[in-house]
Amino acid sequence: MSDIKPTAKATTSVQPHKSSNAISWIAPLACIILGYVIWRFVIGAPSNFKSGQANGGFWPDRDGAIGGLAKMYQGGIIVPILIGCFLTVLTFVIERFLTVAKASGTGNNAEFIRKVQYHLANKEVDKALVECDKQKGSVGNVMKAGLRKYKDMIGNTELATEQKVLNIQKEVEEATALELPMLEKNLVFLSTIASVATLLGLLGTVLGMIRSFSSLGDSAGPEASAKLSQGISEALYNTALGIGTSAVAIIMYNVFTTKIDSVTHGIDESGFTLTQSFAANYK
């Protein structure tokens, strides 16, 4: 009976990122609440209107807005939701900006890869690892994980060169699989708001128009014309808020996807550099 040799367990130096995504649940709700507070108590403050209820309830009546900003209050209950959407966009823009800036590293990724290539050509893996510690970011992290496996494969005498290259490539792929979700996280909020904000704005406009024509039926003469024009003006604030919020979300989404594509390209180039260098130097 032949002896069965235990297979070696695959090891990896790649460690998953431990990060909380609580902001994705808390931020939208908090922003909508803040949007209501701004709409109800700041824009809708009694001092901004000539008449109406001094206090009262969830949505007190106000008449005779003083200034254009106060007219936004009369746009209806969709306005605070749109303000909340805009604040949500700003929140995730700041959060993504900080994350992507950190992931981009401390220096130019192309220059960093050239330095690593130089050190690997001279078979100075430790110096290449030092460059990774200086660079940091997603490209630096992936390169560092690959270099550790690269260093292990140099001293390995059991595997063929092709197998060593595959092990390095696998290590890079595992490190990449952990880095990319961090880069793309929360971008879905920007893409969703880009679509939803416009629809909410149109909904607010339609509701405002219904309210305007309803009040038109209860009035007559010059007063009816004045109420209609005022109602249309108030309804269009919803459209302006919705389109403006959507435009900001679309622009920032495209900015971040472009930056992420640049980082992803650097990660792909890192993997190519490691495998090609090992195949050339350790045949």
Can you tell me the overall shape?
rod-shaped
The assembly state of the depicted protein chains is single chain
Largest sheet: 2 strands, antiparallel
In which order are the strands of the major sheet placed? 1-2
Q: Give a count of the beta strands, DSSP E runs of length 2 or more.
A: 2
Radius of gyration: 29 Å
Produce the secondary structure layout.
Blueprint lengths: L22 H21 L5 E4 L9 E4 L2 H4 L6 H26 L5 H13 L3 H11 L1 H18 L6 H24 L2 H31 L4 H60 L2
Antiparallel strand pairs: 1-2
Helix pairs in contact: 1-3, 3-8, 3-9, 4-5, 4-9, 5-6, 6-7, 6-9, 7-9, 8-9
Give an overview of the whole structure.
A two-stranded antiparallel sheet has the order 1-2. The protein starts with 22 loop residues before the first helix and ends with a helix. Helix 4 (109-121) runs parallel beside helix 9 (222-281), helix 6 (137-154) packs parallel to helix 9 (222-281) and helix 8 (187-217) runs antiparallel to helix 9 (222-281). Residues 1-10 have low confidence and may be disordered. It is an all-alpha fold and 283 residues long. The chain has a domain at 92-283. The protein is built from 9 helices and 2 strands; from the N terminus they run αββαααααααα.
